[in-house]
Design goal:
heterodimer; A: about 120 residues; mainly beta; seven-stranded mixed beta sheet; four-stranded antiparallel beta sheet; 11 strands; globular; B: about 110 residues
Amino acid sequence: QVQLQESGPGLVKPSETLSLTCTVSGYSISSGYYWGWIRQPPGKGLEWIGSIYHSGSTYYNPSLKSRVTISVDTSKNQFSLKLSSVTAADTAVYYCARRTGTGAQEFDYWGQGTLVTVSS
Amino acid sequence: EIVLTQSPATLSLSPGERATLSCRASQSVSSYLAWYQQKPGQAPRLLIYDASNRATGIPARFSGSGSGTDFTLTISSLEPEDFAVYYCQQRSNWPPLITFGPGTKVDIK
């Protein structure tokens, strides 16, 4: 059973960098698939942040591209998100998920999500 | 950029009724559309991929149809656990982008 678990600080100060890690169990990242981050501001809809392949190829939402870095550590079976220069608008539940590489490129397994609040 | 529109925003129905949710794309996405269910405090759950294929473990009362720009998620007979928010999602080749619709809330009448 594929499981994903987000971890990282729940509170980040404005202008600082948000850093989250997703630990995958039950599946080796090196075996394939894409791995992504999605966020959801409180009471709002879902926004794709970006995705990474096990080789390290990345795809980012153009609206966030200048501030986002997604990386992968296959030795730890983890992938990570960094979002720089955060503001209150970046307050959201952040999900990591596994993404297929074909068709709709849907997300078939999700972490439980972690709330990150941007506040001084 | 392809924009997804979902209607209605809210659907008020009773258990046992049929639910029909719509997702419309601003340009053709072929059959590259997925549907998710999200309950309060939970992560989204994949229901349908490639417009009409049920994901693993999804009950047969959920079905998807459509292609091009117009898609439908149908729940044939609502169970109490089906009251939730439903999102559609597509991917575009250029720019390489994944987008979600704004969601339809199915609540109890």
